[in-house]
Amino acid sequence: MPAMPLTRRQILTHAGLGGFAALYSASRVGADGEPSPSALWPGLERKLHDAADRHTRELSRRSPELRLESARGAYTADLHRGGVERGETTRRGIAPDGLLTFAVNTPAPVYVRGTLALSSPPDLRPGLRAYVLCDSTLIGAPMVRTQASWGTAKVTDPAPSVLGNEPEDRIPIEPFLLPAGRHYLTVAGPHFRSAGAFQSLTLSITDRAVETPLCRFALITDTHVQRVGQSEWMNIKMGGAAPAALRDTLRALASEGVSFVQHGGDMTEGATRDEFALLSSVLRDQPLPVYGCLGNHDVYHAESRADALDLLSRHFPSGALDYTYRHGGLRFVVLDENISNPKTRDAKRRWLEAALQQDRKTPTIVVWHYAPLNRGGVSNCGFRLEDWSKAGRESLLDLVRAAPHVVATLNGHDHWDEVNVRDGLTHLQNAAFVEWPNSYRVFRVYPDRVEWEVRQVANRGLVRQSFAARKALSWMIATADGDLSGSFPLQRPGV
Ligand SMILES: [Fe+2]
């Protein structure tokens, strides 16, 4: 995320960015002294799951289709109070912070597609209508769309009061991988308005065979960890809550068999030694290897790079901030954020050229905090997207394009989700972990391709706290159709 450099005083006092500060001492307690939604979530999730479990449905090759209706779901209207009720037999209105959850069992992994029947929301501002989740995987993010682009002066500006188009009542859910076991499918309100009335969610197994991946890994970016505090950017950066959320996410990934995690930069909020030490303690407290990457927030001080190497040495295993590693049949080339800096550009370019030259056979993924390529244009709900991929970044894109074994680039920084395929090369940009939509990607590596899906932090209370409802700024969760899941080949087409 672009930002003015912080002064030492701002960082020490967690005063945040550019006058946007709206800080509280802890995320566990709200401004009213009551437990926060994130603190209430574990108990509420248990209650939702217990209630949903009573009506568990099976999806299998023997019964390959399923229609979920609200009578078989468990519903909560409010993440602040946490009451759970049974669904109703007919249409269920989903409140802004409402969650309607169903339990589904599958004996073997299958690819599933679906249709969500959901009436129009009561207001038609462009943006998110509802989340559709399988556990914490985002399998749908239907939008109110508009023909007119409604770009604002700044990406942090609230959504304007313009009306979008009346949306379709039937929303296709693209195929997603449903692993074996018990899962919880949830339709959730978008926080700033009701989702409309839920009618049904139908699921059907596709013919596609499920293969066992060679390995799985995750890209998590823009964690902006800090000891305490939160601050407003596009939504609410929950830096003080990020360490615990990151630890919980990494533990959950490890327990499902994910092999390693790549960070996309902005590991810390203010690049203090204390924040690097905090991140180090979080990463030590869980079993997954995590590979580091410096973002602009990690280099605010002259001593930042030395501090990062000192305190996060396990996460820069070659002892350098530009480095390569191999995992799961892939080679990763990780870049310090400063390759676009005129003072260091030439040396960095030479390092990258040499790194790409060293191995021209292994499928290679380049990781950099900044986007080598933004597409600009408008998002799928009409928001005019910034193109921040200029300003000296073209030279990196040229180098990467010229290396035929580079199959993808991964980045963070912009805090919105974006996927672009150009010249057979896939550019994947994660939204932020620290602020809404609190998302990250999980990748499955196969002999000929890599598949990916987008997930959110599992704590829906934290997701709620990360969203600034009064701004109604919800375009960054998915900026194009099809960007919540997909795949890229391990051989560049035409190369
Ligand atoms: Fe960031």
Note the main attributes of this structure.
495 residues, alpha+beta, Jelly Rolls, Purple Acid Phosphatase, chain A, domain 2, 2 domains, 17% helix, globular, binds fe (ii) ion
Instruction: Report the mean per-residue pLDDT as an integer.
Output: 90
The appropriate CATH architecture of the largest domain is 4-Layer Sandwich
Q: List low-pLDDT spans.
A: 1-26
Largest sheet: 7 strands, mixed
- Number of E strands: 28
Helix/strand/pairing category: alpha+beta
Rg to the nearest angstrom? 22 Å
Number of helices: 8
The CATH homologous superfamily of the largest domain corresponds to Metallo-dependent phosphatases
Give the overall shape, derived from the CA principal axes. Answer: globular
Query: At the first level of CATH, what is the class of the largest domain?
Result: Alpha Beta
Residue share in helices? Answer: 10-25%
Strand content: 25-35%
| Number of spatially distinct domains | 2
CATH overall fold name of the largest domain: Purple Acid Phosphatase, chain A, domain 2
Which ligands accompany this protein? fe (ii) ion
CA distance, first residue to last residue: 33 Å
What can you tell me about this protein's structure?
- The structure is a single chain.
- The protein is an alpha+beta fold and 495 residues long.
- Helices cover 17% and strands 27% of the residues.
- It has helices at 8-12, 37-53, 242-255, 273-284, 304-311, 345-358, 394-402, 460-465, and strands at residues 57-58, 65-68, 74-76, 85-86, 92-94, 99-106, 110-118, 127-128, 131-134, 137-140, 143-144, 170-178, 181-188, 196-205, 215-220, 231-232, 236-237, 260-263, 290-291, 323-327, 330-334, 364-367, 406-411, 418-422, 425-429, 439-445, 449-456, 485-489.
- The strands form 6 sheets. Strands 1, 3, 4, 6, 9, 10 and 13 form a 7-stranded mixed β-sheet that branches.
- The longest helix is centred in the N-terminal third of the chain and has 17 residues, at 37-53.
- The protein is globular, with a radius of gyration of 22 Å.
- The chain starts with 7 loop residues before the first helix and ends in a 6-residue tail after the last strand.
- 49% of the residues are buried.
- Fe (ii) ion binds at residues 1, 222, 224, 266, 295, 297, 413, 415, 432.
